[in-house]
Design a protein that fits this description.
alpha+beta; Immunoglobulin-like; five-stranded antiparallel sheet; 14 helices; 19 strands
Length: 536
């Protein structure tokens, strides 16, 4: 993986803070973008077939992206199952820095264009990533009309690449271990290795066994991956030191709610990345969502599921499956299981109980309908596109309508015994300041949390610097811990400042069956306090 210099990295981070304000932002979803490719060869399609079949070579050309021109770029077909020889609409990999390492569009050096395989609606990928980004680090996605040698090649989904730029923007580093977990389904593992385990993170004694099921995108990291697999195998206290468990729970919850089985949760344990953050913990990231919302139907247990079976997909799918350790080992921990189910409930109620996803899907289709209808190489008909939210498309593939699947699934999940429990309410959170008329300064952080709905435990996760990992403190409702009366559902505790002036934190409350958080979007927004403010 090519590394960017420290100075450029700092500059990029500064610029990336204003990405949403960039003119013609490449991932702006208020418009359909335009990418024009120009090749000197008239037989470019045949050349790219050969390059895809026999290696990773690139065809040199020129690109115009929303009117901005770039020369000496490289292009090749991408995709495993979606690539077909002679296909008039193969997915594309565009490398803007093919010849010039400094060449980029709005900081992006590489573009990945998806042809939305098995998605007559053309919204699965964009809608899926949009929902996922509410809860976890995930790529952005937008739409582009692609022209090749002035002929309309088709409407594509442009998915943000997980590379140095993406990592720097989201993790403030890009030199740690990065693993792509998308196994080559045509390649067998070496003799002596487990067969057909794909990217499941099953532990292997021989380091070489990992290399057929994972792709290392960083310069080093095989040992790190083996340590993660070993920690999952042993399932001891070391696991939380090498895996961001909460981020993992969000990914697994998302996969289950939206029936995204072309993922770790499905047959091939695939289509995700692992990045080791600056705290030494692997963070999983979703990839390739064009088969979400039930377009891929196999869990790895038996044959493909029917659409009716997808609607009733078990929220605890693979909880007892030893061949899916990222699920089964974590589900052995009652706290992790409770967190996972709480995340499922959050995703369900935020997006699907009020049918907001339906309205968003219709907005996206309205945006792209003309570009889709004009696509000379589209896989599906205009009628398929128009019916794709509410009807099953295809006699053999039987791709469920997004609404017809998720409307019934939402009702099923709402009534499911594992998702019925209502989480505790966190009514108020305060860091106590200096008492009125007192000359006694506040030197530490005294936290008080008012709860409802029978909170049994309350925890505060805190850190003094944004680059630090979180520490956890149990709060008490005993009348002696900066709370009020014992047993009144007001919990308190003291966090020693140890010379630090500021704190970032979030709160989690538990009852016997569920958990709740404050702030609700604690993954991206934290509460803050400073001793200076507390003493005013």
């Amino acid at each position: 993986m090519k590394k960017i210099t420290f100075c450029f990295f700092i500059l990029f981070l500064a610029l990336s803070n204003s990405f949403g304000q960039v003119k013609n932002d490449l991932y702006d979803l208020n418009r359909v973008h335009e990418i024009r490719l120009e090749f000197q060869r008239n037989n470019w399609a045949g050349v790219m077939d050969s390059l895809r079949l026999y290696g990773n070579g690139l065809l040199k050309g020129t690109a115009k992206i929303d009117g901005e021109e770039y020369v000496d770029i490289g292009v090749r077909y991408r995709g495993n199952r979606s690539f077909r020889i002679g296909n008039k609409r193969n997915a594309l990999h565009i490398k803007l820095d093919h010849q010039d390492p400094e060449q980029s569009h709005q900081g992006y050096h590489t573009l990945k264009l998806s042809n939305a395989l098995r998605d007559p609606s053309m919204v699965r990928e964009v809608l899926g990533y949009e929902i996922a980004r509410k809860y976890m680090i995930a790529p952005r996605a937008s739409y582009s009309r692609v022209y090749i040698n002035d002929e309309y090649y088709g409407l594509f989904v442009n998915v943000e690449v997980i590379d140095d730029i993406f990592l720097g923007k989201n993790f403030q580093s890009n030199e740690n271990t990065l693993v792509k977990c998308t196994p080559d389904l045509n390649e067998k593992s070496p003799e002596g290795c487990k067969q057909n385990i794909f990217s499941s993170l099953e532990y292997e004694e021989d380091m070489e066994c990992y290399k057929s099921n994972y792709e290392l995108k960083s310069e080093e990291g095989w040992n790190d991956l083996a340590l993660l697999a070993n920690a999952l195998y042993k399932n001891n206290d070391e696991l939380s030191k090498v895996l961001d468990v909460d981020a993992t729970m969000w990914m697994l919850a998302f996969n289950n709610v939206v029936v995204n089985l072309s993922s770790y949760s499905g047959q091939y344990s695939q289509n995700y990345y692992l990045y080791k953050n600056n705290h030494g913990k692997f963070v999983p990231m979703l990839w390739d969502l064009n088969l979400a919302f039930g377009s891929f139907k196999n869990t790895g247990e038996g044959s493909d599921m029917t659409n009716k079976e997808l609607i009733k997909l078990d929220p605890l799918l693979h909880a007892d499956n030893p061949y899916k350790p990222l699920i089964s080992q974590l589900m052995k921990n009652p706290d992790y299981k409770k967190t996972y189910l709480s995340h499922m409930r959050t995703i369900l109620y935020d997006n699907f109980m009020d049918n907001s996803y339906e309205e968003r899907a219709k907005e996206l289709q309205k945006l792209i309908e003309q570009a889709f209808f004009n696509d000379p190489n589209k896989t599906y008909t205009k009628g398929d596109f128009e019916r794709s939210l509410y009807s099953t498309i295809g006699r053999r593939s039987k791709i469920p309508g997004i609404y017809s699947l998720m409307n019934k699934r939402a009702k099923f999940l709402k009534k499911h015994e594992n998702l019925r429990p209502i989480p505790p309410t966190i009514a108020e959170v305060n860091i106590l300041g200096r008492e009125k008329y007192s000359n006694e300064p506040v030197n530490d952080f005294k936290i008080q949390v008012k709860t409802a709905n029978k909170a049994k435990h309350v925890k505060v996760f805190y850190r003094f610097r944004s680059v630090s990992d979180f520490k956890m403190l149990y709060l008490k409702d005993d009348g002696n811990s900066n709370d009020e009366a014992a047993g009144d559902e007001i919990f308190g505790g003291l966090i020693a400042s140890n010379g630090n002036e500021t704190i970032e934190y979030y709160v989690m409350a538990e009852n016997p069956l569920s958990v709740g958080y404050e702030p609700a979007n604690y993954m991206f927004e934290l509460r803050k306090a400073s001793l200076k403010e507390l003493n005013n």
